[in-house]
Amino acid sequence: MNTRLLILAALIGAPFMCIGVYVEAKFPGVGQPWWTGVWGLIYITGWLAGMEAMRRLRLAGNDPLGKWAVVLVMIALFLADISNVWQLVAPDYKPSLFWALDIFWPVSHVLMLLVGIATVRAKVLGPYQCWLPVVMGLWFPLTMVLSRTPIVLHFSNIYSLIAWTSMALILWQRARMQKIDSNLLLHAFHL
């Protein structure tokens, strides 16, 4: 799949946790497992596509930490997506295996801290952009800290919306820059 299509999928998926949770809060009847499966599948699949774009663009670096951190997040996201499909196919059947897969939602969020560390170390992104994967990795710990407060719903949703959308936009920008760089290189060799 084309890197730009992966980034487009990341951009489309980025707001879906926010959308899904707010729809469930506003319309309690919609808060069924199938709906959670739908918005979860779009969100996680978009994030997975964004991680593949990040891997292709080598934004976390070429060292073992950069390569493996991204791969670990992608594996966790894939496993989390299985639980989303499960909710669509068998929304009322939730044995231990379902919960074992579903735990990869928060695990993937925490693993983003490794991607963040690798991205900061790689110094491929700008001095502020390189910290965005760290911000993404802090989503789950901050949400847990605020879980007993009245602002948790709004904080975690807006945080997610801004962080994941910003990352997709950075990926888009980097893909464009790399295409421009490769076009300049190709042009230079044709002269």
Automatic annotation (TrEMBL):
The chain crosses the membrane at residues 34-53, 65-86, 98-118, 130-146, 152-172. The keyword Transmembrane applies. Keywords: Membrane, Transmembrane, Transmembrane helix. This is Uncharacterized protein.
